[in-house]
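TL;DR need structure tokens for one chain.
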Amino acid sequence: MKNKILYISSIILGVYFLIRLIDQSQMISAFPLDFTNDWSSYIAQLHFLKECGFHNFCPYWYNGFESFLITAPGWMFFVLPIYLLTNNILLSSFISLIVLYILGFVFIYLLGRNEQISKAKTLFFFLFFFGNAIAIGNFVRLGRIVSLFGFICFLALALIIFYYRDKKLDKKFLLFIPTYSILLISHQQESVLGSFLILSLFLVNKERIKIIIFSLISVLLSSSG
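>> reply
TL;DR here they are.
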């Protein structure tokens, strides 16, 4: 009975999730100009990154400004190669949304396998996490794509933390450095959550000096811009 409820819930969430993504694909041909979204702001900043560069004077807004002084640039750096390939800013933004959800599924699947959770429960967790009305309202409808990018980075960091919580730190732990660095430039809220997650690893893993060193390197890399 419990498995049936799980399967039915997964199907309902999955269908709703798919419908909302298909509906959102309209942004490929129509710029999101309505008043209740963040898409337009982030798409504009992606344009600024391409045309003006990083921390350069940008004349496209009012009397001009220096780009990315206070804005976390993680998502913009992530989607910029797609934008350069497609030369279509709306298509690139939508593709980035799909790619982030695919990465989110991969990280959750690997977390589930690491924690020996069944595939059905792992799929349900993914759909429950990303396919609920609040998440879709924030990430898809409102276009809080920067926050979604932060959550995906957080999941990648969580995968590393959970894997090494009771293991010796080896060469593969070097992945911690770029993962945490990218998280720090993604979005403030997820960066704070990720830092608390690292604190939990510090408390349970005996190789605390390495964790501190790797964390400091990550912070230095993220602040080098």
